[in-house]
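Bench notes, bay 3.
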Amino acid sequence: MWMETKTDVEEARRSRTSFSRRVLNTLLSCTGDMKHLDEYMEDKLFVLQLVVWALRGVARVTLANNPLTGALILAALYWASPWQGLLGTLGVLVSTLTAVIMGQDSAEVAGGLYGFNGMLVSLLMGVFSSAGDWYGWLLLPVCFGSATCVFLFSGLSSVLDRWDLPVAVFPFNIIIILYLVCAGQDNPYFPHLPALPPGTLESNGTKLMATEVMRGIPLGVGQIFACGALGPSLLILGALLLYSPLMALHALLGSAVGTLIRQVVSISLAIRQNVNTTLKKDSNR
């Protein structure tokens, strides 16, 4: 009787151990590049493969290469603004499909390298637009700009590869600047918000607000996708953590440095403004 009880206890312990190990292995399989998913998707429908490629393109904006990371980031964008989420989805799908039609390298397409520039273009067009959300005309430049990114990416790659330089977000920068210059603020179909002159910053007093700094650090990570809400920004940070804890730490550190510098500059401007005001008053006396 005692031997049977001992055997049952050992079997229960082994069962719990094996279950915990399976859970851990499942979690670990969702991290990193998830290469096993590519092997699984080889014989699946093209639509399903396109979804995985597009999600990798979403994650590539943060230099990650994980479709689950991309799915979480896209969910965060829809959480913050369904309109921005739609624009980002349309941009990454159009650019990825354009690369497929052009016959670009299949490994690069599957890795999302032709999707992230299109997504950035579409998101920034939505942010700069002064026509508000759900403005249908904006879908035209979003599709055209996202598709053009693929041509620029392919053309610049052949040039920059000679010096072993990455193309990165050059296509996105070129397209968004050309769009803003050509459309103009008073365009009847594609109006956009005015750009602030260099050095224009709003001063927030002469005190360093710890709460604002702490809140600004995760928001700085979300601003990679033009997301200004705290909850979605934390979800984006969690998506990075899923891919690589080290990358998430680097993102936090970079955002923290930028946020602190922004606060210091703002305080310096406020102090200078107060000094100038005091000097003017003294001179008038």
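Next record in the batch:
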Amino acid sequence: MSEQHRIEDVATLERLYGTPTETSIAKEVDHVHPVYRPFIEKAPFFVLATSGPDGLDASPRGDEPGFVVVEDDKTLLIPDRRGNNRIDSLRNILLDPRVALLFLVPGVGETLRVNGRATLSVDPALLARFAVGGKEPRSVMVVAVETVFFQCSRALVRSHLWDASRQLPRSALPSGGTILGTLSAGKVGGAEYDAALPARVAATLY
């Protein structure tokens, strides 16, 4: 990339893109407005972005719709379900509480963006509220909401994300076992990993 074509200041960026439209400003509020609440309650999936001293992290989070609870218009409650125990996002939150959430609802073009600050709780009463099949989450993330706004559908329209005819078969990409085997020089992963994966996932969802 040529140095003369690099954007290095906000003024240049704003001249290039222009000012936000009135609608871009009007859609942002500092709480979960009733018109935004359904986007959270109907979403089975969101992406959690965090920041810490070791860098940034974007983590997928998913469960049955309603798994993110709108406790009130300034508070979200999110159970931390079983994962790979890297806890990258949670480590970041302990050092930098700022979080950004992007909610997606299958079939809906608009997404919902929520920014705020998170704390982690192991309050027994709170954990019990999110138990599934008698299994409680390890912790619950409490998000103090600061800004909420919807994102228009252009990105999802361009990507054809919800178009079933555009879906790839899983075999079109390397399997988890193949990736692990390749990166570890055969120490972990492989065909046995792939064969055992469906049962392992089913047994460890919660």
